[in-house]
Amino acid sequence: MKGYKQAILVREDLGMSKGKMIAQACHASLKAYKKADSEDVKSWEDQGEKKVVLEVGADDIKERFQRAKSKGIPAAMVKDAGHTEVDPGTVTAVGVGPAENSKIDSVTGDLKLIK
Amino acid sequence: MKGYKQAILVREDLGMSKGKMIAQACHASLKAYKKADSEDVKSWEDQGEKKVVLEVGADDIKERFQRAKSKGIPAAMVKDAGHTEVDPGTVTAVGVGPAENSKIDSVTGDLKLIK
């Protein structure tokens, strides 16, 4: 059976509070979910909606988003409005999938889980 | 103009890692989103999808969920499968809304933001 997951990439280097990081991650998760293939979403839901939360650097986050897009994998980038903790337009998080594990891994497989 | 938001209630007392907390919050956010009224979702999206991340205690989390339900406000409870950090069936997070601010506040208005 094919496995499915969603990857949520979050920048830890911005010094965001925990609550802010959570909100940005949820924006990314929902935004990517809306772009995903409906069959993939169904398979993912049937398997329990696995989400992995990964650390990504400032220099890397846009490149990961572009890599997903170039491979046809649904992805969404979150830019913060900058009302509170970060500068306006700062990319804080990226959601990739849900999609097959192998596809997600081709974009994010080398990133580390946020502990 | 009416304001709209989604509240994401997360237990901080479980000692979950940051990544685990983020994943549980994203589960709650998505699950509650799917239950929300479509007109409310549209208004919320038009306003930028405000999400507030709130701290909730072990003794209180189920009561908040029930309070939302009893008021007819869309809400979703996340129980962890317990494969990793917490006991199986532990309620880790609750999503409320999106809905009008006043409705959300009637359930979560006294809870503190997670910093």
- Count of runs of 4 or more consecutive helical residues of chain A: 4
**Average pLDDT value of chain A?**
95
Q: Tell me, what's the shape of chain A?
A: globular
For the termini of chain A, the CA-CA separation is: 28 Å
* Largest sheet strand order of chain A: 2-1-4-3
**Alpha-beta content class of chain A:** alpha+beta
Give a count of the beta strands of chain A, DSSP E runs of length 2 or more: 4
CATH class of chain A equals Alpha Beta
Task: Please give the share of residues in helix of chain A.
Answer: 25-40%
CATH fold-level topology of chain A: Bit1
Strand content of chain A: 25-35%
Structural summary, described in words:
The structure is a homodimer of 115-residue chains. The first copy, chain A, has one domain: Bit1. With 115 residues, chain A is of the alpha+beta class. Chain A has a four-stranded mixed sheet. The first copy, chain A, is built from four helices and four strands. Chain A has helices spanning 18-35, 38-46, 61-70, 101-108; strands at residues 4-11, 51-56, 75-79, 91-100. Chain A starts with a strand and ends in a 7-residue tail after the last helix. The mean pLDDT of chain A is 95. The A-B interface holds A 8, 10, 17-23, 25-27, 29-30, 33, 48-49, 51-53, 81, 113-115 and B 8, 10, 17-23, 25-27, 29-30, 33, 48-49, 51-53, 81, 113-115.
